[in-house]
Known about the structure:
The complex is a heterodimer. By secondary structure, chain A is an all-alpha fold. Chain A is globular and about 85 Å long. The relative contact order of chain A is 0.11. By secondary structure, chain B is an alpha/beta fold. Chain B folds into four domains: 77 residues, CATH 2.40.50; 149 residues, Rossmann fold; 73 residues, Ubiquitin-like (UB roll), CATH 3.10.20.90; 68 residues, no CATH class. Chain B has a six-stranded mixed sheet. At the A-B interface, helix 9 of A face strand 14, strand 15, helix 9, helix 12 and helix 13 of B.
Amino acid sequence: xxxxxxxxxxxxxxxxxxxxxxxxxxxxxxxxxxxxxxxxxxxxxxxxxxxxxxxxxxxxxxxxxxxxxxxxxxxxxxxxxxxxxxxxxxxxxxxxxxxxxxxxxxxxxxxxxxxxxxxxxxxxxxxxxxxxxxxxxxxxxxxxxxxxxxxxxxxxxxxxxxxxxxxxxxxxxxxxxxxxxxxxxxxxxxxxxxxxxxxxxxxxxxxxxxxxxxxxxxxxxxxxxxxxxxxxxxxxxxxxxxxxxxxxxxxxxxxxxxxxxxxxxxxxxxxxxxxxxxxxxxxxxxxxxxxxxxxxxxxxxxxxxxxxxxxxxxxxxxxx
Amino acid sequence: xxxxxxxxxxxxxxxxxxxxxxxxxxxxxxxxxxxxxxxxxxxxxxxxxxxxxxxxxxxxxxxxxxxxxxxxxxxxxxxxxxxxxxxxxxxxxxxxxxxxxxxxxxxxxxxxxxxxxxxxxxxxxxxxxxxxxxxxxxxxxxxxxxxxxxxxxxxxxxxxxxxxxxxxxxxxxxxxxxxxxxxxxxxxxxxxxxxxxxxxxxxxxxxxxxxxxxxxxxxxxxxxxxxxxxxxxxxxxxxxxxxxxxxxxxxxxxxxxxxxxxxxxxxxxxxxxxxxxxxxxxxxxxxxxxxxxxxxxxxxxxxxxxxxxxxxxxxxxxxxxxxxxxxxxxxxxxxxxxxxxxxxxxxxxxxxxxxxxxxxxxxxxxxxxxxxxxxxxxxxxxxxxxxxxxxxxxxxxxxxxxxxxxxxxxxxxxxxxxxxxxxxxxx
Lengths: 320, 427
């Protein structure tokens, strides 16, 4: 008996498809980096500093909470780093260090860890953080004000702010191609539409995010904006493509709304959730009080997620 | 091991191994010294048991532990009983182990040959409950409701395994004979044989109604066969017998046919052995043969840290010992190298929904697992369809957080059964 070989005994299945949390999060980071690079090129050193500091502090917050809660250290799964990266992508390159530090604190601690860590968060941590930040320090996160030190060879006004303040006539200087290739002001990683789209396509094809959510988000936004131009007061509303390629629409549809924990898993609920985000975004932008509605739209739909996800197929052999 | 495809948007496609037109004769492996038989009867020292250590037994002899009880085993060898002891099986199931050391002289027990001259339900119940392939004989004498439909399962229920298909290929006449006997002795009216398309001709020759199934996992699950082929959805939590249906393996029916054909109880079990490189070998061994005999005959070395799996990679059971015997329902044995073993984790569910989208029973696994982790088993049944689970293991296979979902499900079912039977005793 003592010389018996020691085999590994565990429960079936004995195969695994090889997916893991870290693979998933690192791939999402990889795809997101594609959209960060144009930001680095445009804003230079300060952008690099914000991104690095954001990722680093997000990981440090996570570790601190792990230690305080006497839980295993989870920074290895890449989620904290991903949250840091996504937060940095949404804020201006001029954000002061303390604001980044507060932002990552809000995202990691308030947005994620107090709900029990990865998988327990009812809202996207970055959405929680962005909502609190932009309500707290208007000036720092107002792109027109924040990006004053920069002057590039394109219109330096934040497109959505111009739209809100002066109507669609003021945005005639933005061509869709310019918006698509990132010739607009905004967050470090949220302006280059084409890079965000390529990253999103990659993640969808690899199965890291769910196409249903991204697709219905964009479709919902497009259709709503289109209906506004069709039936709304003439000359008051901007076209659907303008809405898709400005502000946080793309980063929201690809990286924020698709977060696992705060989004539904069934087919119809995913479509409803995505469409809800898109519709709310445009409603807030067109008739609401805020310049960009993405953050609040996702926040709202995160809240509705558990309810929407009740729409589910009948299980095998379920009686009544 | 089949990994996730690069384009993860697509569901992972797991295919059963379908045998080609060549017939592979199983390699016969003889028992080296001892065989171990497992009886479902709980061992109790106070019982006066019929057999004793030291008793001489003959090949094909019926060994009952207690007089008048249905449970028995059939000795596959001639020799002497060297030990009778309690044995704890999977999920704490209590059994009795009987070890027989083999004699060089082979003697066959003649009692079955005598009784088999006129096939009857009594003879079948008395002698054939321990057939290779495992035939649930007790179902045949069940009265309410009577079994009316017998589904002969000619497809292996797990990946890599080809045992049942080989049996259909090689032993179609024996299956035919088995069906004839069953028609005579039981009230079964409908015989349906389920095979992959490649075995259609062999299946037709058995005389049963032939149904073919697709090669994608888990279409060979009895629950899905019932749903997709017989067009009947089994109410969650019900067993097949309750609806007058029994699902048995093709090997069991073939063994029954062979038993009456040759007038001796078959004791040779065919199984697929899969070595560390994934190569499949078909072998035929006596029931009760320790796995190490098979490994040494096939030159397979199982080392510390490897995993020995009885059954297939998705639904099998791992064992802690090379001494584990081949049982009547052992269809496959896999030796998995330590480098191939992926461990489970204690991560929380991240709600990615992979399990929900792959579940063939359409269970909300993401919600279910939350209830199971918290031991809220009744809620799991009432609100999240625990009993709809067909136990295919796909949820654990795709789990990004590597949660042992399938283990939670089996454990909770086990716990609920325990609670129910304890409560039943109170009444």
